[in-house]
Design goal:
about 700 residues, mainly alpha, about 65% helix, telomeric DNA binding, TELO2_ARM
Length: about 700
């Protein structure tokens, strides 16, 4: 009977009767019961019939049918109003609100939004009906209804027709649109943001809210606490919202808040450039450029080399939409008359004036009689590189010959590897010179050449050089760049020492596949047997041929005896601030690099003698910093836990660190549930799975 009731369209007649009763003050208890039955009918039927009910009661069939019934009731209300009769729309609003709050916005609004879009195009009565439909939704269901309309409206103009000035009339709707969707949530698409902010910009009453929203977004964007504690995804979301708001501002509005925009830009770009995460820094530069371009239409604008940064660091996700929005904004500002910045700012510099040909010829008349020398066979004079280590030291310290200095820098690595005995005599002195070496000329790949030379010295004489470098890491009068260089060199050298069999040898991917190569012009038949054998070999399928690949040469792990010299000095003095260096203060970028370095050293120390002591010390280090505010540091700490679980033998973990592991497990559970950074949550889950695997092994 219920199935027949639905198929005959009687549910619209039922709702229409309730609407008429509401106009005549009908029973509220009956209306509430009917509301629950209409909205929850699929659940009631499913509970009674235990899944053996007709297809019309499936939610994906029932709620579109209910949407069609709502349209029929609204049509009757429209006819009633045109006929001068009173009727109420609040029951239909309640049905819509309750369906949406139950999570069925997609099913019902996929029917309602297209029909209402067509009906409100040119009919003012339908527009008023639609506005009244959403205005009568109770506050407790308002958020679900607004989000449903915003997500499914094909554009801001359609959304404006469907919602009217709802955000001005309803405080709950205003809170959802201007606060919750923009500042408290960040999972919505760019299209949703464009719909929402475009809707605010299309009416004079709502434009005041647009400016208010922009100010609050900029306040959040410029808050150092928000930048530090909110995930990168939320930062990207807020940046997109700011860029869209800027594209909707008009010149008088910009003039009224120009100083506020400038102040917010300066505060925000500082917070973002102070971040340890590259994607946050780039987001800050992009938004600051857009604000500067918008407020400084006549004067100079802020310009970062963001395109260059993108080129060298292409691994950052989520910036494509930002770049597209930035293009859109700059196109709006320039009225599409100038080429976009992201297409390559080829004409940004001032072009040199080009002299006419006649003037150039006149200027060169005096030199016409001079015949140029023939320099076609001239060869560039190459400076010979030093052949002794001590000679290299002398050149690097005091030579004024730039060519010889450059040749020394390029040859130093190979010279160190070829002369290990001579290098050990002066290893610490050479390490000191390389650590302080600055580029005298424009040498291609200078940083890499210097780093490779440092790694070569460290691997040649590990213990004294490692002692020197780790002691200098906590010394005075070093830049942050030099301290991070020390960490990089330690990691690369440890990696090389832990895989000694691959040092100085070319890595082969495997034995070459058999192939036939006939030499052109050779009709000799002396190699016919080889050719036939290769052809047979290439066509033959072999199911068991033994070990086909050449076994790599094995050897002792050279990192085994020196792992402690790399690791323990780095972990000793992290909590002692210096005059120019405070790891627990403002130098958290270096702290993050240190933590990641310790994680790598721990991982490379697997199967070494000192691995258990290193694991215990590392776990204590992690425990001291586990509540650090910077997400980059927390990611490194979680990587340390992973390295410790993978490197330390299970028996030693349980014997030496059982209580610490239980406390760590509890902390990891909190990180997985509560940490704002997605990478931290993922790493915490990974560590918990590693712990579960250890339990299964036991």
């Amino acid at each position: 009977v219920l199935e027949h009731f639905l198929q005959e369209g009687r549910i619209s007649a039922l709702m229409w009767e309730v609407c008429q009763q509401q106009a005549q003050a009908g029973s509220p208890e009956l209306q509430e019961d009917l509301l629950n039955k209409i909205v929850c009918l699929p659940d009631h039927v499913s509970n009674k019939l235990q899944g053996k009910h007709p297809a019309v009661f499936f939610p994906h069939n029932y709620f579109p049918l209910l949407g069609g019934a709502v349209i029929q009731v609204l049509q009757q209300i429209s006819d009633s109003l045109r006929g001068g009769l009173d009727c109420s729309i609040s029951f239909v609003s309640h049905v819509l609100g309750k369906v949406c709050v139950h999570g069925r916005q997609k099913e019902i609004l996929s029917v309602l939004v297209p029909r209402l879009t067509d009906l409100t195009k040119s009919d003012c009565i339908w527009q008023r009906i639609c506005w009244r439909l959403v205005e009568c939704v109770p506050d407790r269901w308002m958020e679900a209804v607004i989000l449903g309309f915003v997500q499914r409206a094909p554009g801001a103009d359609v959304l404006s027709r469907l919602l009217g000035n709802l955000v001005v009339k309803n405080k709950k709707a205003q809170f959802v649109v201007t606060q919750k969707v923009l500042l408290l949530q960040y999972g919505h698409t760019t299209a949703v943001l464009q719909n929402l902010l475009g809707y605010l910009s299309l009416d004079g009453l709502r434009r005041a809210l647009l400016i208010k929203v922009l100010q609050e977004l900029l306040e959040t964007w410029g808050s150092s606490s928000a930048v530090k504690h909110s995930p990168p995804e939320q930062q990207q979301y807020i940046s997109k919202a700011i860029l869209i708001c800027l594209s909707h501002l008009k010149e008088p509005e910009i003039e009224s808040c120009r100083q506020e925009l400038l102040t917010s830009m300066m505060e925000g770009v500082k917070c973002h450039l102070d971040s340890n995460l590259p994607q946050i820094r780039r987001l800050g530069m992009i938004v600051a450029e857009s604000i500067s371009l918008k407020i400084n239409t006549d004067g100079p604008v802020l310009k970062f080399q963001v395109k260059v940064l993108m080129k060298f660091m292409p691994d950052v996700q989520g910036l494509e939409e930002i770049k597209a929005l930035n293009q859109m904004i700059q196109g709006v500002i320039a009225n599409a008359a100038l080429p976009l910045v992201w297409e390559g700012n080829k004409n940004s510099g001032t072009a040199a004036p080009v002299m006419p040909d006649e003037e150039s010829d006149a200027e060169l008349d005096s030199d016409d009689d001079l015949i140029p020398y023939d320099m076609s066979e001239d060869k560039e004079l190459k400076t010979e590189a030093p052949v002794y280590i001590r000679e290299c030291i002398e050149v690097l310290i005091g030579s004024e010959d730039v060519d010889k200095w450059e040749a020394t820098v390029k040859a130093l690595e190979s010279l160190v590897r070829k002369n290990p005995a001579a290098t050990r005599e002066v290893s610490v002195e050479l390490a000191k010179i390389l650590l302080h070496l600055e580029e005298k000329t424009c040498v291609e790949g200078f940083v890499e050449l210097r780093q490779r030379a440092q790694v070569a010295v460290l691997t040649t004489d590990p213990i004294p050089v490692a002692k020197y470098l780790t002691s200098q890491f906590y010394s005075l009068n070093y830049s942050l760049r030099q301290r991070m260089d020390i960490l990089d060199v330690l990691v690369l050298a440890a990696q090389e020492l832990s895989y000694p069999k691959s040092r100085g040898k070319t890595k082969h991917s495997g034995a070459p596949k058999p192939c036939i190569q006939l030499l052109p012009g050779s009709d000799s038949s002396k190699d016919w047997r080889r050719i036939v054998d290769e052809r047979i070999k290439s066509k033959t399928r072999r199911f068991a041929t033994g070990q086909s690949q050449v076994e790599l040469a094995s050897g002792p792990n050279e990192f085994n005896s020196v792992a402690g010299h790399f690791f323990f000095p780095l972990i000793q003095h992290f909590d002692r601030p210096l005059t120019t260096f405070d790891l627990l203060g403002e130098d958290d970028l270096v702290l993050g690099r240190l933590v990641h370095t310790l994680a790598i050293l721990m991982y490379l120390a697997v199967n070494t003698v000192a691995v258990a002591a290193m694991g215990k010390a590392l776990l204590e280090f992690v425990w001291a910093l586990r509540f650090h505010t910077d997400s980059y540091v927390r990611q490194g700490l979680l990587s340390c836990v992973s390295s410790m679980l993978l490197s330390v033998p299970t028996e030693r973990l349980l014997e030496d660190m059982a209580e610490e592991l239980l406390e760590t497990q509890s902390w990891l559970g909190d990180v997985m549930e509560k940490d704002p950074d997605g990478d931290c949550r993922r790493l915490a889950l990974q560590n918990l799975l590693l712990m579960e695997n250890l339990k299964k092994k036991l």
